[in-house]
Specification:
The chain is of the alpha/beta class and 337 residues long. It contains 11 helices and 14 strands. The protein folds into 2 domains: 211 residues, Rossmann fold, CATH 3.40.50.720; 87 residues, UDP-galactose 4-epimerase, domain 1, CATH 3.90.25.10. The chain binds uridine-diphosphate-N-acetylglucosamine. Uridine-diphosphate-N-acetylglucosamine binds next to α7 and β8.
C-alpha cells in the first residue's frame, strides 16, 4: 500500500486529511508531538474510517529522531506537512519558539524527504502571505507582503525554503496550499477543532459562546470599509480543505504537476463578514448569540477571499460546503464536546 506521512496528523486540519487519505485507500503514518493535540483523535479517525493509522509521537525538532524515522519508513511516497505552531499572538511574544518550531522542523523534514525515491511534498501555507491584498478576490500571482507576525513570516519563509530546494533538486515535487479560514468539523462529530484555552479564532469562540463556555463574543470592529462594517474572510469547511490535500498529493504522485513547485489558493471564493458568520450560527443553532461590538484587533486586515480559478481548473478541486454547512458541523462538534 502507498504510504503517506502526515506530520501534525492529529491536529485540526491534519486529522481530517488523514480520514480523506484513508478513504482513498492510502496507508497513513502520522507524526505528532501532541503539543497541541490529543492522542484520542486517533480513536476518532479509526472510528470514522475503520482503519487505525500508524502513529509515532515524535518531536520534529529532534533531527536525529527525524532521520531515524525516515530510515525506518523508506516506503513513504509523499509527505503532507502540517506540524507547526499557529497562534499569531503567541508568535509575537515568542518569535524564536515559532522560528524553531516551524522552520527548523521544515528543514529537517525536507533534508530527509530529499533522500526518498518519491520526494512529494505538500506544505500548509496560508493566505496570510498576501497581507491586505490590493485586489479581491486574491489570485496566486498577487504579491506577497511583509508578514504581520512571526507566525505569518514562518509561512512565507517556509514557501521560500521550498522554492530554493526545488530549484536545485528537480526530483523534488512540492505544492504549497494557501488556506483561507478553515472552520467546521467532520459530519460524524468524531473529530474537530480542539482549541486549548481561550480560542483566538472566530468560529470556535462563537460555538463556545453558544454553548455557554464563554459569556460573550467580541466582534473586533464594525468600522471597516465593508458593507456591514465588519471584516470579510473566506471561511472554508475543513473537510473540503482536507480533500484539497489529497487531490494535490495525487497530482504529484501521478506526475501531473506543471512545475516542481506549485502554489494554490484553497478557499471557497466567497467572502463573509463577521456578522454574516454570526447570523449563520444563529440560524443553524436556532439560538441568539450574545455578542458586542468592540475595538478593532491589531493586525487584522479588512478583507481576504480567494480567487479559486487555479485550484478549480488545475487541481480539479472545488469547495462543496456552504458557510451554513460548516457552521452546522462546528456546532454539532461543540455540542458533542
Ligand atoms: C487568523 C490569523 C491568520 C491565521 C489564521 C489561522 C490573525 C490576525 N490572523 O486569521 O494569520 O492564518 O487565523 O486560522 O490572527 N474575530 C472577532 N472576534 C473574535 C475572533 C475573531 O470579531 O473573537 C474576527 C476577526 O477580527 C476577523 C475574523 O473574525 O475579522 C476572523 O478571525 P480569525 O478566526 O482569528 O481568523 P483571521 O484573523 O482571519
Amino acid at each position: 500500500m502507498s504510504k503517506i506521512l502526515v506530520t501534525g496528523g492529529l491536529g485540526f486540519i491534519g486529522s481530517h486529511t488523514v480520514v480523506e487519505l484513508q478513504d482513498k485507500g492510502y496507508g497513513v503514518v502520522i507524526i505528532d508531538d501532541l503539543s497541541n493535540s490529543s492522542v484520542k483523535v486517533l480513536d476518532g479517525i479509526t472510528s470514522i474510517t475503520g482503519k487505525q493509522p500508524e502513529f509515532e509521537q515524535l518531536d520534529l525538532k529532534n533531527k536525529q529522531k527525524v532521520e531515524a524515522f525516515f530510515l525506518a519508513h523508506q516506503d513513504i511516497i509523499g509527505v503532507i506537512h502540517f506540524a507547526a505552531s499557529k497562534a499569531v499572538g503567541e508568535s509575537v511574544e515568542k518569535p524564536l519558539l515559532y522560528y524553531e518550531n516551524n522552520i527548523n522542523t521544515l528543514v529537517y523534514v525536507l533534508q530527509e524527504l530529499q533522500k526518498l525515491k518519491s520526494p512529494n511534498f505538500i506544505f500548509s501555507s496560508s493566505c496570510t502571505v498576501y497581507g491586505q491584498a490590493d485586489k479581491m478576490p486574491i489570485s496566486e500571482d498577487a504579491p506577497t507582503k511583509k508578514a504581520e507576525s512571526p507566525y505569518g513570516n514562518t509561512k512565507k519563509i517556509g514557501e521560500d525554503i521550498i522554492a530554493d530546494v526545488c530549484k536545485v533538486n528537480p526530483e523534488m515535487n512540492a505544492i504549497a496550499l494557501r488556506y483561507f479560514n478553515p472552520i467546521g468539523a467532520h459530519e460524524t462529530a468524531k473529530i474537530g477543532e480542539l482549541p486549548i484555552g481561550v480560542p483566538q479564532n472566530l468560529v470556535p469562540f462563537i460555538t463556545q459562546t453558544g454553548a455557554g463556555i464563554r459569556e460573550q463574543l467580541s466582534v473586533f470592529g464594525d468600522d471597516y470599509p465593508t458593507a456591514d462594517g465588519t471584516c470579510i474572510r473566506d471561511y472554508i469547511h475543513v473537510v473540503d480543505l482536507a480533500k484539497a490535500h489529497v487531490v494535490a498529493l495525487q497530482r504529484l504522485i501521478e506526475g501531473k504537476n506543471k512545475s516542481n513547485n506549485e502554489v494554490f489558493n484553497i478557499g471557497t471564493g466567497k467572502g463573509s463578514s463577521v456578522l454574516e458568520v454570526i447570523q449563520a450560527f444563529e440560524q443553524v443553532s436556532n439560538s441568539k448569540l450574545n455578542y458586542k461590538i468592540t475595538a478593532r484587533r491589531e493586525g487584522d486586515i479588512t478583507s481576504a477571499y480567494a480567487d479559486t480559478h487555479k485550484a478549480n481548473n488545475e487541481l480539479g478541486w472545488k469547495a462543496e460546503s456552504t458557510l451554513d454547512d460548516a457552521m452546522r458541523s462546528a456546532w454539532k462538534w461543540q455540542q458533542q464536546l
